[in-house]
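input
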Amino acid sequence: MLQAASNLFARKGYALTTFDEIAAAAGVSVATVYNHFENKDGIVAALLRPDVEQILARAERVIEHPPPDPAVAMVRMLSAYRNLGGRNWKSRELLRLTIVPTIGNTGQLTELVQDAERRTQSQIRFLLQKMQASGQLVPHLPLADATAVIFALLNQHFAAYLTSPALTFEAMFRALSRRVQLVFDTWRAAPARARRGINCAAAAAGPSRRSARSRPAGALPRRS
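output
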């Protein structure tokens, strides 16, 4: 039944798919579908829950072994949500149902969303706490507020993606990554900030004189 529903959602869309069609595609009666799922929201929740678990598990692996730079570590963790796992997440219609559920809805889909949001915020906070404890972030950074800022950035960019058909997921995530980097420029502890400054200065300096002399006159530097 779930596979039949997934195929129909991909072909017709969630709104246009009926229980009768799901039952027919699965080779069962409509009553059998209703015995397992109260409504279509329940079917979507059952389809997406395994993907949510995979996403959160990927994020946990980043938390266990984060990159040394705190901004890179946070972007790497958020990239676990970027891939979203499984074709069921490729539909903006299903994403809208999960990221912006109906106000006041207390059904299975909203429960799934609330649980995923709670666990996502917990992962963001734990990574921030780990980086602060290791001296990468300023010791006075309020972790609850910092978590809210990162989570708000994540939601803001997902909302832009869902409401702007011309915006690709890749372009949205590049913007999210850039803004997360900007936020961390003020959150880094002094030694980490100094190291980033050195790296940025080196990058801004461009090619060395030696490499410049080795190029023929008028030649452009190669793209990396």
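quick obs: The mean pLDDT is 80.
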